[in-house]
Structure formats: structure tokens, C-alpha cells
Amino acid sequence: MKDKDCILLLSGGIDSTTLLALLSKERYSITALCFSYNQKHSIEIEYAKTNSKIYEINNIEIVELHTSSFNSSGLVSSVIILNKYQSIKLPASQDNSYVPFRNLLFLSYALSYAEALKIHEIYIGVNKDDAENFWDCSEPFIKIINKLAKINTDIKINAPFIKYTKSEIIKLAYTLNVDLSNTISCYEPKNGKECGSCLSCVKKEVAIIKAKSN
């Protein structure tokens, strides 16, 4: 019997799918929120739907966001070419796939949804590796949003992978029997195939190699 309610920010990627598997194992009743914002990898929504079925999540909400303010991001703009990398040369600064205040928007929506439904826990799959390139995946960001939430609610935003590297999350995915072929990490897939050279693809490649070698 499932007796714990939570909201999960679910994409089609490894991190949130692994978190979905973990929460399912811990017998949470999960409401999944998946965001559509004209992203170049909108195929992730189909993967999120597929994994929701696999883990028997009855409630998945596809949230449509207005994206006029996202045109500075290579993840959304049709005129900005996403940065490409080699696996041995990952950037130390913010990538041009950054979407302004994206996780703040996602979590603000999730907080509103949670308060309306009287759900007290929100989960997000941000991690240590993502925080290197995106400030709104960092531990200080999560701490500040939790402080804001506590002003008038008892809702907690949980980021259980915040100190995990991507390879550590992949190791956990293996132990949970997550089918990684049912995930997509690419920022700009072509015909459903990962490009292999965007930041997300390269991080995934490096992480899988590390996970298998350790």
C-alpha cells in the first residue's frame, strides 16, 4: 500500500527517471510534473510518459509554459546553435543551453500545485555535475527555495542527488534496474537519436564510462 504523497519533476533523462524508480520503490504515491516549453528535446515528454506507465504513475501533468523569455537559450531558440564538446573537454562555465530561471519556474509551479493538493514533499533530480554549469541546480539554490517555501507552508523540496555525481546516479540506476534505453539526455536529438556532442550527451558518456569502471 502506498501511503506517502509527493510531486516529482519528471523529464525524460536519467536523473529524474532514476529518482522516479527510487520513489516508486519507497512506495510513494507520485504526481509527476513534466514541462513543455518549446525545448528542442521535447521528445523527452514521451519518455516521461513511458516511464510513468512503467512505474505505474497514474497522475502525470504536462505543464505548458509560455516561452517568449527563453529565446536567449540555445535549448529553445531556433537561431542559437547549441555548444558542442568532446568528452575530454567539458566546460567549467555556464553552457548556452541554460534557460533563465528554469528551475525556479518549475519549482514555483510545483509549490503552488503541492499547496493546492495538500502535498508536503516535492522531489527534483538536480545533481553535483549539473551544478557545475547551471546555478539553479546547486545546493545553495535548493536551500533558498526551501526557505521561501517555509515562510507559509510545510512543503519540503527534496534533492536527494544534490551531492551525487552523474556516474553515482547511473550506478544507482543499475541497482534499481532502470532501463536507461528508456531515457534520453540529448539537448537536440535528431530523429529520436542523441547527437552525442551536446553538453548533456557528453556528460552522460563520461558518467557511464566511470560507472562501469568503478
For the structure shown, list the relevant keywords:
214 residues, alpha/beta, Rossmann fold, five-stranded parallel beta sheet, 5 strands, 37% helix
Give your account of this protein's structure.
Helix content is 37%, strand content 13%. The chain has helices spanning 14-25, 44-54, 102-117, 128-131, 139-150, 166-175, 199-213; strands at 4-9, 28-36, 59-64, 121-123, 156-158. It is an alpha/beta fold. The chain contains seven helices and five strands, in the order βαβαβαβααβαα. β1, α1 and β2 form a beta-alpha-beta unit. Strands 3-2-1-4-5 form a five-stranded parallel β-sheet, with helices on both faces. The protein has one domain: Rossmann fold.
- Average pLDDT over all residues: 94
Biggest pleated-sheet summary? 5 strands, parallel
Q: What spatial order of strands do you see in the largest sheet? A: 3-2-1-4-5
Question: Can you count the helices?
Answer: 7
State the CATH class.
Alpha Beta
Radius of gyration: 16 Å
Blueprint (SSEs and pairs):
Layout: E1 4-9, H1 14-25, E2 28-36, H2 44-54, E3 59-64, H3 102-117, E4 121-123, H4 128-131, H5 139-150, E5 156-158, H6 166-175, H7 199-213
Parallel strand pairs: 1-2, 1-4, 2-3, 4-5
Helix pairs in contact: 1-6, 6-7
